[in-house]
Design a protein that fits this description.
This protein is 63% helix and 0% strand. It is mainly α. The termini are far apart.
């Protein structure tokens, strides 16, 4: 992988995300109902608490012990039990379908953007929006050159947008993405109330 993320405000957490495809996938999985910084700092907490960080180790850790990894303060996620289970399900799928190699999801066989999206959608915990954002993150920040990645990740692949984690390059862009997301949530809430 190439590229450097600046999401968490913690150099060690960002370095792990930048160098480990599994960490990046897990961070993306955790990115729901918590601030982005918390979600993407989760892989470092998991690695430090487990003492290892690979799909097989995570998948085969006793579920109760893994839930304890998540709930130890500071918690990995605000919903430690359910998210620990999702992370183990994701890692099991990576072991079973990708021989434990998370990066193979977007590299094996030279897939085009639509195929990478299809592969991401097949992963536990990756719905349409999350898969498209992750694909945009790969293209914008990690140099994924798969044909059609921008189209497959629409609207998140759009150049110059500030819609998601894929658009964060520094603290200023993080603040801008957060403001855009808050405005979108407020607009959705107003529309729902009418």
């Amino acid at each position: 992988m190439t590229g450097t993320l600046h999401i968490t405000g913690d150099q060690d957490a960002d370095r792990l995300l930048s160098s480990d495809p599994l960490a990046l996938l897990i961070g993306m999985l955790l990115d729901q109902q918590v601030p982005m910084e918390t979600a993407f700092a989760g892989p470092l907490k998991i690695r430090d608490r487990l003492g290892s960080f690979d799909a097989a180790s995570i998948a085969y850790t006793d579920p109760e012990a893994f839930a304890a990894v998540f709930s130890t303060s500071p918690a990995v996620h605000r919903f430690p039990g359910s998210m620990a289970k999702r992370v183990q399900q994701l890692c099991s799928a990576i072991v079973e379908q990708w021989d434990g190699d998370a990066e193979a999801i977007w590299t094996r066989g030279g897939p085009d953007g639509q195929e990478v999206l299809t592969r991401l959608l097949a992963l536990p915990g990756f719905g349409d929006q999350k898969a498209r954002i992750f694909l945009a993150l790969l293209g914008k920040r990690y140099g994924l050159s798969a044909d059609g990645w921008r189209e497959a990740s629409e609207p998140y692949g759009e150049d110059g947008s500030l819609r998601s984690v894929a658009d964060i390059v520094d603290p200023e862009s993080l603040a801008q993405v957060r403001a855009v997301k808050q405005a979108a949530k407020a607009a959705a809430k107003r529309a729902k109330e009418q």
